[in-house]
Amino acid sequence: MTNARVARLRAQLAAEGLSAVVLSHPHDVRYATGYHSVLERWTQMEPFAAAILFADPAKPTILVIPEANLGIVAVLNRHAPTCTFDEIRTFDMLNFCEVSRYVDPDRASSRLADDAMAIAGAIRGTCQPDIAAAVTAAMVDHGLVGCTIGFDEHRLSAAAMSGAPHVYRDALDLMMRVRVVKTPEELARYRTVGKMADRVIAHAGSLLHEGADWNHVQAGICDFMVRNQVIPVDEGAMLFGGSYDGDDFIPDLFRTAGNRPLRKGDIVILETQGVLDGFWIDINRTAVIGTPPPDYQRLHDILRDGFLKMVDMLRPGVSTNSLPAIGYDHLKAHGVAAPEKLLVVAHGIGLMPLEIPLPYPAAGLAGVKQGFVMEEGMLISLDSLFFGAKLGPCHMENVYAITADGPEPMYAAPLELIVADRSSASAEAAFA
């Protein structure tokens, strides 16, 4: 965990009167320590790791993991201090740990064992039978009995209560407020993510052509992502934004299957989503198969100009709830039919695709109607979708860093309509 993250989180703990926070959601554990493994991607209901951070800077940052995963920490830190902590507490995970302790007489050496032993000096206490027991032991050893402790998972607090009585406080909202403002190091990482996002959306556009099968397009973009160390959101990798019923486009806000080969004049919404270095790619452009009709080109350009007006308001002290009206007024002033069909959402992005710093539940209507005040250092994804039926849908989305001097775009892909025509050079070449 970087010094900036430590200071920000500890300051928030002190402000809320918490002695410590116990984190077990994978996103929060990764935020606090940098620890992650393939086990978290199994999306089990029970956590496979935890982190304990104290308000007191003299206290250690504690990482709680299965003993069998000690080698993972060494691998994470092989080239750089990705996973940082002061102390490790271990627990058994099924019987993996028992087996890993057995020394195989037929192996002269074990790289995994060597990696694990390299960090053995950070281990405190004995290996516990489960994660709750390990957290409880750490709480007792560090004097947290009777203290006010924040947890991002109430069940872990309940499991530790008998062995380490404490005053429970929910830490979910606290962690979202802390995580939504990025550190300089995180912003630098996202600039690298942004360059890959440009390549991904360009590659997606290059796969479109008359007669293209949507399943093949999806497979192509997934292949491109995986070969470039991007984890696709799922086997789809992109949102199509609707489907065709004969010649009529049926709008849909979420993924639907393409049910016929693409034809000239078809509108395709490309929203490529995936994870790189722990951060989400969320970039959106609209494509047309063949030369777009003039009326549709005009609609796209009107939406783009309205989008840029909203972008100009991405500044510290401005509430995200003011943005939809800007887009609506722009469309209405330019005679766009049904401007009410414009959907505008401004949200934080990072370890999750939607980071909204409002009290739980934040993803309801309040996420837009109430919104939140932007702060310097936030990463804001501005999402603008028009689903008017007369000419068809139109969509664009970009991520911006909020700075004192104005929004800094994280993606360089042009906000222009993608014309999918095999006779033109691949759009990917522009970002190669």
Question: Could you walk me through the main structural features you see in this protein, from its secondary elements to its overall organization?
Answer:
With 432 residues, the protein is α+β, with helices and mostly antiparallel strands. Helix content is 32%, strand content 21%. It has helices spanning 3-15, 26-33, 70-76, 96-101, 111-118, 131-141, 154-161, 172-179, 184-206, 214-227, 294-311, 323-333, 366-369, and strands at residues 20-23, 50-54, 62-66, 87-91, 148-151, 167-170, 231-232, 238-239, 242-245, 248-251, 267-276, 279-289, 342-348, 379-386, 394-403, 406-409, 418-420. A 6-stranded mixed β-sheet has the order 4-3-2-1-5-6, sandwiched between helices. The radius of gyration is 24 Å and the shape is globular. The protein starts with a helix and ends in a 12-residue tail after the last strand.
- Give the radius of gyration: 24 Å
Structure summary, number of beta strands: 17
**So what's the overall shape?**
globular
Helix-strand topology string: HEHEEHEHHHEHEHHHEEEEEEHHEHEEEE
State the gist of this model:
This protein is of the alpha+beta class. It has helices spanning 3-15, 26-33, 70-76, 96-101, 111-118, 131-141, 154-161, 172-179, 184-206, 214-227, 294-311, 323-333, 366-369, and strands at residues 20-23, 50-54, 62-66, 87-91, 148-151, 167-170, 231-232, 238-239, 242-245, 248-251, 267-276, 279-289, 342-348, 379-386, 394-403, 406-409, 418-420.
